[in-house]
């Protein structure tokens, strides 16, 4: 598995990453309804095109199996195709982000406990909680940083 930063965000690549995103979200974001997934999906291509650093993890056949977006030292997004979960893809991506981009903070949906556990395993600690996500939707977010003491959050 090799992580590469994408310079040319072609329509084909965006389509492939959208498929990875949808596979990941359907497996991990069980709190979202079908309508909510379809609504959010409309905005994913724009986010993929606008994130300053888009990094992709390809399978041996050169098809993307995971990706992450980084802005400054903040992890904006990290998604791994459902069939690739638990095989080290997320760890490879995040480790690369930490080593090459000094990623030190992120936000994760509180209702996605597997992701929270993954980030804790990778050295991140919750330091803040909000009742709503950054779009104002009623999905609590946990803000996490590397190298801070745990506060009294779930």
What this model shows, in words?
The chain is of the alpha+beta class and about 150 residues long. Helices cover about 35% and strands about 30% of the residues. The protein contains five helices and seven strands, in the order E-H-H-H-E-E-E-H-E-H-E-E. The chain has helices spanning about 10-30, 35-40, 45-50, 90-100, 115-120, and strands at about 1-5, 55-60, 65-70, 75-80, 105-110, 125-130, 140-145. Strands 1-2-3-4-5-7-6 form a seven-stranded mixed sheet. Strand 3 and strand 4 (about 75-80) form a beta hairpin. Helix 1 (about 10-30) crosses helix 3. The longest helix has 18 residues, at about 10-30. The model has no long low-confidence stretch (mean pLDDT about 90).
List keywords for this structure.
154 residues, 7 strands, 5 helices, 7-stranded mixed sheet, single chain, 36% helix, alpha+beta
Structural class: alpha+beta
Strand content: 25-35%
Number of distinct helices: 5
Which range best describes the helical content: under 10%, 10-25%, 25-40%, 40-55%, 55-70% or over 70%? 25-40%
What is the overall pLDDT average?
A: 92
Radius of gyration using CA atoms only: 15 Å
H-E string: EHHHEEEHEHEE
Question: Short summary of the structure?
Answer:
The chain has 154 residues and is an alpha+beta fold.
Furnish the topology, listing elements before pairings:
Layout: E1 2-5, H1 11-28, H2 34-41, H3 44-50, E2 53-58, E3 64-71, E4 74-80, H4 89-101, E5 105-109, H5 113-121, E6 124-130, E7 141-146
Parallel strand pairs: 4-5
Antiparallel strand pairs: 1-2, 2-3, 3-4, 5-7, 6-7
Helix pairs in contact: 1-3
């Amino acid at each position: 598995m090799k992580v590469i930063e994408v310079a040319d965000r072609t329509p084909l690549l965006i389509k492939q990453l959208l498929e990875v995103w949808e596979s990941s979200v359907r497996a991990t974001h069980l709190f979202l309804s079908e309508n909510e997934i379809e609504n959010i999906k409309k905005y994913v291509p724009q986010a993929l095109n606008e994130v300053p650093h888009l990094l992709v993890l390809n399978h041996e056949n050169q098809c993307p199996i995971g990706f992450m977006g980084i802005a400054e030292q903040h992890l904006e997004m990290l998604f791994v195709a459902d069939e690739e979960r638990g095989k080290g893809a997320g760890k490879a991506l995040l480790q690369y982000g930490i080593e090459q981009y000094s990623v030190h903070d992120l936000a994760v949906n509180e209702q996605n406990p597997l992701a929270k556990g993954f980030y804790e395993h990778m050295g991140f600690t919750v330091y803040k909680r909000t009742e709503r996500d950054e779009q104002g939707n009623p999905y609590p977010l946990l803000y996490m940083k590397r190298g801070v003491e745990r506060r009294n959050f779930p």
